[in-house]
Amino acid sequence: MYIKKIELSILLALVFTITLSCLDFEFTGNNIRNSIFRLHILANSDSEYDQNLKIKVRDRLIKEGFEIFGESKNLYQTITLANENLNLFEKIAEDELLKNDCKLNVQAKVEKSRFNIRTYGDITLPAGEYYALQIKIGKATGHNWWCVMYPSLCLPASGQKIEDVLDENDSEIVKNKEKYIVKFKVCEWFEDIKSLFS
C-alpha cells in the first residue's frame, strides 16, 4: 500500500511538471502564433491537374501578394491589408486559373485556422491557430499548401527574417526543432485537447 502511494505521488508530480512545462511553452507558442500571418491555399482536389493549378495560383499570389504586404510592419497591419484586398486576391487567382483554361471559382478570406506542427525551410512552427489568408479553389478538398506571408518567408529575397518579428527566445525555439520537438508534440496534444472543449 505504501509503495502504491509513492508511485502515485511520483506519477502526479510528473504530470504536474509536464503540465507546468507545457503551459510555459504554450505561452511562448502563443507569442509565436500571434506574430505570424500565413498564406493557405486549398486545391480543388488531389488530381495532378488541380494540384498543378494550385502551384500556379501560389506562384502568382506570392509574387503579387508581396507587392501588397511588402511594407507591412506588423501582424495587424498585414491582416488589415489582406482584408482590404480579398477581392483582388480572388481576381488574381481566378485570372491565373483562366490562363490555364480553368473556370473554377475562388474564395478568399482571412481567418484563424488550425495548423499542426509545420516546418518551413529552417524554421518549425508550433501547432495552433494562426491568422491566415485562405484561398479556396473550387471544392477545396485537395491537399493544401501554406507559407508565411508575414514576415515574408515565402520570398527569401524579401530580406525579412523570423527574427524581425520574434524575440530572441521565440526565434531560438522555431529555429531549433531538434531541441524542442518533444515540447512541440506535447503542446500539439495539449492544443488538440483544448480544441475539444472550445
Going across the biggest sheet, name each strand in turn. Answer: 2-5-1-6
Mean pLDDT: 78
* Secondary structure: number of strands: 6
Reported for the largest beta sheet, the result is: 4 strands, mixed
Distance between the termini: 40 Å
Radius of gyration: 20 Å
List the domain count as a whole number. Answer: 1
How does the overall form come out from the CA principal axes? elongated
Sequence of secondary-structure elements: HEHHHEEEEEHH
Structure notes:
With 198 residues, the protein is of the alpha+beta class. It has one domain. It has six helices and six strands, in the order αβαααβββββαα. It has helices at 2-33, 48-69, 75-84, 86-99, 168-175, 177-196, and strands spanning 37-42, 106-115, 118-120, 123-125, 128-137, 144-150. Helix 1 (2-33) packs across helix 6 and helix 2 (48-69) packs across helix 4 (86-99). The protein is elongated. It starts with a helix and ends with a helix.
Chain-wise SSE layout:
Layout: H1 2-33, E1 37-42, H2 48-69, H3 75-84, H4 86-99, E2 106-115, E3 118-120, E4 123-125, E5 128-137, E6 144-150, H5 168-175, H6 177-196
Parallel strand pairs: 1-5
Antiparallel strand pairs: 1-6, 2-5, 3-4
List keywords for this structure.
198 residues, alpha+beta, two-stranded antiparallel ribbon, 6 helices, elongated
